[in-house]
Design brief:
With about 350 residues, the chain is of the alpha/beta class. It has twelve helices and twelve strands. The chain has one domain: Alpha-Beta Barrel (TIM Barrel). The strands form two sheets. An eight-stranded parallel β-barrel has the order 1-4-5-8-9-10-11-12, surrounded by eight helices. It has a two-stranded antiparallel ribbon with strand order 6-7. It starts with a helix and ends with a helix. The structure holds ligand PBG.
Amino acid sequence: MKRTVDEITGSRRLRRLRKFSWSRRLVRETRLHVADLVWTLFLCEGENQRRPIASMPGVSCLSVDIAVEECLKAAELGIVAIAPFAREPLSRKSDDGAYIAAADNLTNRFTRALKQHKVDIGIITDAALDPYTTHGHDGICRNGIIVNDESVEMVVRGALAQAEAGADIIAPSDMMDGRIGAIRDCLDIHGFQDVAIMSYAAKFASAFYGPYREAIGTSDLLRGDKSSYYVDHANSNDALREVEQDLNEGADMLMVKPGLLYLDIIRRIKDNFSAPLFAYQVSGEYAMLQAASANGWLDGERAMMETLLAFKRAGCDGIFTYYAIEAAKKLRAASEASA
Ligand code: PBG
């Protein structure tokens, strides 16, 4: 017996509310705001420099003066925070990555320069050794092994130098055990009780960091991979244990990285913990979208907005993204059009 659609659905028609733009907007569950976006940018030496990164079309390494100018514009667009990553020259690199602790390394020079402008934008600095080591690892390497406790000591020195330069949030991304507690202790002892810590708590060993390593010049240096310290990408419980541990050690905020492939992890963390949660839409995710849209295979703008919204739907409070400026412009244009 063939039933009518109303008999099948019991007269429930979910398409009713999808019919009009206004009704779709009325029942929309998730929204993306400019304030959700953290702009990730690359720093390089020199003055007046914008050096394009081949595998990240649309992204360039910026010298400190230009980066500051761009951040002032970002603040005007409503971007709430920025996260700089440094391409340090080879001459600054060493086996132990000690340049992370230099008051005048690129990141710290940038932080000081931007802070002089007293704009309402947060600076989130990456506390990890990889831009500063000759081998591209996030830790100190002894006989082929990334040694944990010595690496923590160096990362702590770097975090302190970042706080002294004026960083608002320290974001250790190296996955060494005990780094959150050690950084918290050091910041507190030195009077930086108000500097927050965002833990890259669930950072996975991933193929999607490739373009970033080209951008900061570590791809040719890196020997082996980072699977002895990043979370195995097959694991989900492991990521939750990292989160629990880092919160116990004093993390204020959490990060999942990469982003789009780990929406399941984001949802599990959001359901189990109440700390502010961020995702990092990493370089490989950006490169994939840019490559497909350059070929006309994807509508790049729509794909950008859809992926950013996906992070919010999965449970993120904000997103680190190379698209922040572009997305902020689009969001502002949309809100002006509907005002
Ligand atoms: C390492 C670090 C990585 C990224 C930022 N800091 C990963 C890595 O090189 O292993 C990746 C960011 C991206 O891919 O956009 N501390």
